[in-house]
Structures are given as C-alpha cells and as structure tokens.
Amino acid sequence: MKEHLNKPIAISMGDAAGIGPEIIAKAFDAAPELTRGCFVVGDVATMRRATALISGKALVLPVAAIESAGEVSTVPPRCIPVLQLGTLKELVPFGQLSASAGRLAAECVVWAANAALRGDVAALVTAPLHKEALALAGPPHSAYPGHTEMLQALSAAHVGKSVVDLPVRMMLANDELRVVLVSIHVALREALDAVTLDNVSQTLRITHDSLQALLGRPPRIAVAGLNPHAGEGGLFGREEINVIAPAVAMARQQGMQVFGPFAPDTVFMRARKKSGQVGEFDVVVAMYHDQGLIPVKYLGVETGVNVTLGLPLVRTSPDHGTAFDIAGTGRADASSLLAAIRTARGLVSLR
Amino acid sequence: MKEHLNKPIAISMGDAAGIGPEIIAKAFDAAPELTRGCFVVGDVATMRRATALISGKALVLPVAAIESAGEVSTVPPRCIPVLQLGTLKELVPFGQLSASAGRLAAECVVWAANAALRGDVAALVTAPLHKEALALAGPPHSAYPGHTEMLQALSAAHVGKSVVDLPVRMMLANDELRVVLVSIHVALREALDAVTLDNVSQTLRITHDSLQALLGRPPRIAVAGLNPHAGEGGLFGREEINVIAPAVAMARQQGMQVFGPFAPDTVFMRARKKSGQVGEFDVVVAMYHDQGLIPVKYLGVETGVNVTLGLPLVRTSPDHGTAFDIAGTGRADASSLLAAIRTARGLVSLR
C-alpha cells in the first residue's frame, strides 16, 4: 500500500522578485494533469501577479488560498492552491534583491521540507531562490549558501543526526546526462580542497545507492579527474593518484561499478546518451560544480533537473536560477520546472 | 601576390605508437584535394605501416620519401610525401609509451616549426604526441608539457624575444563554439594562480586580434567567471571582482567588445551556434583547460580543431590525443585532423 503516492507535492515559490512564481503559474496552466495534487508554498498576492504574466489567455488562472496540505484535494481543477506563508508587506519589485523576498523564499523551503520530513507531502520541488537575497535574509537562513545546505540541516535535525553524518550530493540530470557533484556552492579554490578520499568515497556511495534505487539495477559510474587529462600520469597534478584512484579502487572492492578517473574533457561526452544509443555510463561523478554543470547545461537549460541525493525526502528543482533579468516580462520558460515535477513523481513512485 | 598560398603545409607525425600516423594516412586517402601540397614530417616506415591500417582498399596508398619541403610538388597525386626525420631503430609497438617515439615526435615538431618560421612552409598541422612520452624524451624536449609550449619557445627564439614577451593562447573550435584558454597544461591548482590581471588581459588582447583577423570584424568576446555562478557577487570567491571584471573593463576601454564575467555553467550554452542561429558571442574566454574543453568536446571530438593564437606562424591540430587504446586497430577517425588541415588553409588564405 503506497499511500505516499496520493500525498500532495509541495512547490516552494522561490524568490518573489525572480521567475519562480511565473514558471509555477505556467506549469499549472500548461500541465493540469502533471500538477494535479501539487500546491505552492508561498505568497498568494505574488502568485496572483504571476498568473497575469501568462499571455494570450482570456481567463487568468485562479489562485486558491489553502491552510494545510490536506486541503489540496478540495481545490477545484484549473486553480492554483497556495499555502500562504509569512507576510510580504507589499509586492516586491521584479528583478530586485531584497531581504524580505530572501526571507520568505527561505521560510517556504523550511515549511515544505518539514512537511516532507513529517510525511505530510510526498516530495518537495523548489523554485529558484536568489543566493544573495538568502544571504541578506538574516539568521538562520543566511547561514546557508543555498537550498541543498538548508535541506541537509533540516533533515539532519529531523533524524537527530549531525549534518556531517547526513552527507548529501547534488545530481543534475537531463534526457542525455546525469552528473553528481563532489562539492557545489563554494569558491573553486575551496572545491579543490574538498577533493578528499572521504568526500569522493562518500559521493560514490551516495551515487551508487541513489541510482540503484532510481534505475532498479547497479549504476555504471564514471569518475572525472580533477586536473587536465586527469593529471596525465601525475604531470599536471597528483589528486588523481593520491585521492581519486584510491577512492575508485575502494568503491570497486565494495562491489560498485565505478570506472576512472577519466580525462574531464571527454568523460561527459562518453557518458552522453545520444539519439537511440545509451551512453557508456549511467552517471558521471564530477569533482566540482562547473565541471559537471557545464556539460549538463550546454545543450540548453530547458529540461535540466536538480535532485538532492542522500536526503530522507524527495527533492527536485529546475536547474536554472531566478533570472532577475527577465523576471516580470512573461518570457520565463517552465520546461525545467515541469521536468522537475515529473522527476519528483518518478522518484516518489519508486520509494 | 600571396606566395605563401602555394607553399606546402607540414603535418608533424605525432607519437608513432599512437593514432597520428593512421589518421594522417586516412586524411590523404579520404581527401586528396584538401591534402594536395601537404607533407608529413616523420618516419617513412611508420607511415607505411599506417597506410596498411586503412581497410577495404585493394591498393595500399604509396609513401614517397622526400628530402625537403620543396620536393612536395614533385610527388605524384595519391601518394603521401614523407620527410624522414631522426632514426627509429625499429617500428615502435602500438599503444606503448617510449622515449624514442616521444623524441621523434618532438623532433618532427621542431623541424616543422622552424620550417614555418623560415617561411619554407605555409602552416603547421600537428598530429597528437603523447605528453608522458615527451617527458621521457629527454632534454630539451622534456622541458615542454606539450606542443604549445614548444612552439612558443621556438617562435620566441626565432624572433629574438623571451618567451614571456611572446604570449600565446590555445583556441579550440568546432562548428558550434570557439573557446580560448587562459591556461592549459597545468594542474588545476596552478591554473587558479594563473588567473591574474595580466594573464586575463593578455588573453583578451590575443583573442581580439586573432579573431579580428579570422572573422574580418571585431569579435564579440564572452568571458567566463572562475567560480560557480561567477562568484555570485563575491559569495563563492572573489577572483571575478578582483581580477576578471577589471580586465574586462580595461579591454572595453581599449575598444574591444568584451562581456562578462558570466556564470561558467551557462556562458558556453549562450555562445553556442545552434542550427541556423548565430550564438550570442563569437568566442568564449575560459579561465582554465577543462572549463573550455568540456563544452567544445561534449558533442563529440570528431570535428574539433586546436589553433595556437599569438604565434608568428599558423598552427592547427586535431583536438584529441594519441588514443593509445585503439592505436593499430584501424578504428581511428581522421575527421578532426581533416578539420585542422581545412582550418590551417583558411588561416593561411587570410594572412
């Protein structure tokens, strides 16, 4: 009896000054079947403003204020259920950083994550927040560089572990490629220091366990090197010899199908699923943020999905940001959010 | 009167144990028009062995030993002119590192570069050498991490400058994307230290001047940041604020069309030329090797070309390595070498 299949999915609104509210409104408008049972955690007035950005519609999509996740099923079709959180004194201007929008965005994530941890919602899909606004939001939110770290802290608190004992990793996926990152929102210099035996091993374990659950079989994991040409035998850096290769060897001894380290500039091409052909690998473990995200985004950000692996909840998000430059213009594309909702549903059904 | 248009093009053979000789033989076989006036600087016996790897041929392509670049025009069509250099005592086994193959590969580059600097050949196309074999080759060759540094040293000596006063940059280009790299074959840790105001400014100047010559108009140059999200306003690293943005501002003051720094994970996607659409930029300046090469290679390495900018000679090469794993099997793909020859001819005609 998979009762969680009937539970609602919470979509956190993201920064009110960005494109989050607009893409959510467009997702509800464009995909009524997919979004049935979803609700927004955010601000009713901001969501009303967002629905007006959908062009070419005789009727603006109605927004229905709800008080709890349980009320979602009572909202009529073609209506966006919104759970009001916090209080924005007034609508925030599009494309402008503000502490109030940062704070509200963070509060939405906290509420939705806790609902997921309690089991009130089946999954959490997060619309983009702005990291500088989050930094302006004040404690406790400003302590977190982004969504992932917030979710990790909330989950750790929920299960009574320290954050260190609940390691998580970011996976980015589109139709062609999946990558899992050893580190994310830190300066590249710090990311180099994060390439340790523990961190790489942990990434391999989380990747193996999560992809095994997702695919229903042991995944073929490729590991990227850190240096050009994976160090070319030690000529351009020794992290491959001292850290990455030993982590790969350990993972193989534990029965995982792990290969590498490979030259970073060709491993993603090798793993890429081309028309009708499977790639050489199911997933690539990348040593730092841009190493993995450059190839995932290269063909376009429309359908990329961000999945947080290792958490005791299902969380996905679109793989783009708040796009302050086009916020309020009605030009935002909901494809990545729709893909994130679809992926969340897939992950829920596999639990 | 462009007499250099009639000069031959030298193709250095690369590592004899790799796929270099095979792709050269295949290029001569597949594209007799394009390769007319080209000759190989290498080893006659190794090239003969390579011609036998072309499958499905009743007649093996003949190899003609020549003594000088001037003799190329006397070699009959459908015959590969080879200028014998050094002495391999015997054929080297496929796919094995050796000092002798490394040394011969280096000597071929030295000879061809000097011929280009003297004006005896119009351009130099280099087949892949193996960097570990080069390191085994002994002085002076082992001092150079790769082709680019060798060519820089030879050119500097020729024009009587120090290497420091002859800065060069690597450009990788395919049909969709051009990238120029601030640094190349160094450990990523060292590459971070190479992101200085001088190095970035120099890269912008070289990129502007070279692309102006190539395109016949000022290029639109995008600059990638170093850190995730280009530092997100200083939250994840300050190189963008302290180094890259000032270099961009200086270049704009000098009249160049330079934009950024942009988030590394989306700038390449933005610059990419999609079917029938021009990209937002003509070229992206990348802060380190893999940042630029991952997107260039993601769609396949078949047609990528490596161009060294800033040298007093024309030099192009395929953007793949020696592929020791498939050397000798006959499965090597000559597309990238053919693209390199085509690009070299294009650059020669623009001089």
What would your notes on this structure say?
The structure is a homodimer of 351-residue chains. Chain A is α/β, with parallel strands linked by helices and 351 residues long. The first copy, chain A, has 12 helices and 12 strands. Chain A has helices at 20-30, 32-35, 44-51, 99-118, 131-136, 147-159, 188-193, 197-215, 239-253, 264-271, 289-298, 335-350; strands spanning 9-12, 38-42, 63-66, 80-84, 123-126, 169-173, 178-181, 220-224, 257-262, 283-286, 305-309, 315-318. A 12-stranded mixed β-sheet of chain A has the order 3-4-2-1-5-12-11-6-7-10-8-9, with helices on both faces. In chain A, a hairpin with a 5-residue loop joins β11 (305-309) and β12. In chain A, α4 (99-118) runs parallel beside α6 and α8 crosses α9. Chain A is globular, with a radius of gyration of 20 Å. In chain A, 56% of the residues are buried.
Keywords:
12 helices, twelve-stranded mixed beta sheet, homodimer, 351 residues, alpha/beta
Describe the structure concisely.
The structure is a homodimer of 351-residue chains. Chain A is of the alpha/beta class.
